Amino acid sequence: MFRWRSPRLTALRRTPAAKHLLPLLFCPHQVGPCEVSTPPLHAPFSTRIVGDEPVLVRDFIRSALYDPKHGYFSQRSGSVGVLESSIKFNKLEGRKDYIKQLDKIYRQSDISWFTPVELFKPWYAHGIAEAIMRTANFSVPLKIYEIGGGSGTCAKGIMDYMKLNAPERVYNSMTYISVEISPSLAKIQRETVGEVLSHSSKFRVECRDATDRSGWGDCQEQPCWVIMLEVLDNLPHDLIYAENQISPWMEVWIEKQNDRETLTELYKPLEDPLIKNCLEIMNSANKQASPSSVRLIADTLWSKIFPRPRRCWLPTGCLKLLEVVHDALPKMSLIASDFSYLPDVRIPGERAPLVSTKKDGRSSDYNSYLDAKVCNS
Ligand SMILES: C[S@@+](CC[C@H](N)C(=O)[O-])C[C@H]1O[C@@H](n2cnc3c(N)ncnc32)[C@H](O)[C@@H]1O
Questions:
Q1: Which of 110, 266, 349, 374 could form a disulfide with 253 if both were Cys (CB 3.0 to 4.6 A apart)?
Q2: pLDDT tens across 230-263, in order?
Q3: What is the rounded CA–CA span in Å between residue 260 and residue 262?
Q4: What is the 3-state secondary structure (H, E, C) of 49-100?
Q5: Ligand 1 atom 1: residue of nearest CA
Q6: Residue pLDDT, tens place only, 55-72
Q7: Arithmetic mean of pLDDT over the chain
Q8: Lowest-pLDDT range, 3-12, 20-29, 155-164, 321-330?
Q9: d(Cα 241, Cα 310) in Å, to the nearest integer?
Q10: How many whole angstroms from 176 Cα to the centroid of ligand 1?
Q11: Nearest Cα to 133, choosing from 193, 118, 125, 337?
């Protein structure tokens, strides 16, 4: 199976930040409240992420991905794969040929993953533009926000399509605002869209964190479109841990050990409001009838005889972004694409991320998120 070569699975890699990692095993074992757990991990670069105070897992991931100096997405090249030329789909003879072509692309490039908007360019962006054209209310000027626009391929594709297919007044009065956290990707987006001169006056990049409500200013009552492609699943996640099947969830923090080179997990009682809120939403989605008292006794006994620690990843970054955008743009129409399934994940826990690296044209996956190395700048 071309696990990393299928467009769908490729973009699934939720933590592409972990492109440069150390292969280390991770075996969670039982700990009590606030005890330090997990085997020590020697990760000389990731230790830079954690200072003297412990940090929540989401802050560790945010730093690994978006730190302006060392974060994965702050690298100028390669953080979002860009195809040099579009795939000629009309020359392909079916799925087998497509898979062969993808295989060739991945072998030739040092990029770990390409997203659908890149692999299917320009058609993917044109499809989104056509969907907007069919449903937008053109009595008001068209306003599109794209969050996490990567290399600008989607923005350019949509604007190209509008220029060719929308009524002239719609194209002339449209605005396309990209909200991008990475300064290097923001620059690439300006270059990509700037290839068409007439797009430039309609396009701007706001280089900021879209999850920060203050960056959006006052609430905007006008209708608009918000596009997020492969963004929600890349946002920082939190991790919660329970000692066994019935013990309460604890929030996971990361701290540096005295040797300054080892990162370990630290468990604290649930207090963080974002984690609590996210857990409540996830629980209400999977609400089952409360277990009977017989069932509770059986579970308690079972957890004493065969205690099994539990780990669960929570999409706290996604929750925060959706809340902020909903508050700032209450009349938005949202177009988001992401993945509902990850293949062969090695990192333990429910909804765990896939952490991978690529060397000499081959991908490999890792066992611990704590190994994420930040870039040497
Ligand atoms: C996996 S890339 C996807 C890029 C592009 N949408 C695509 O499909 O090719 C994630 C993008 O989201 C951006 N991003 C992540 N978190 C963000 C945030 N909080 N605010 C704004 N942009 C963010 C990244 O810098 C990057 O451009």
A1: 266
A2: 999 889 999 999 999 889 999 999 998 877 678 8
A3: 6
A4: HCCCCCEEHHHHHHHHHHCCCCCHHHCCCCCCCCCCCCCCHHHCCHHHHHHH
A5: 230
A6: 999 999 999 888 887 788
A7: 82
A8: 20-29
A9: 6
A10: 16
A11: 125
| H-type alpha helices, the chain | 7-10, 57-66, 94-108, 116-119, 123-135, 153-165, 168-173, 183-194, 273-285, 293-305, 316-328
Place of tokens 């996640």: 237
SS3 234: helix
pTM for this one?
0.83
- Specify which residues 327 forms β-bridges with: none
**Separation of first and last alpha carbons in the chain:** 36
- The DSSP call for residue 330 is T
| Protein residue with least CA distance to atom 5, ligand 1 | 150
Length of the chain: 377
Q: What is the whole-number distance in angstroms between the Cα of residue 55 and the centre of ligand 1?
A: 23
Helix 153-165 to helix 123-135 angle (10° resolution) is 50
Which one of 176, 181, 231 would you pick to mutate in the ligand 1 pocket, going by the greatest count of ligand atoms within 8 A of its CB?
Answer: 231
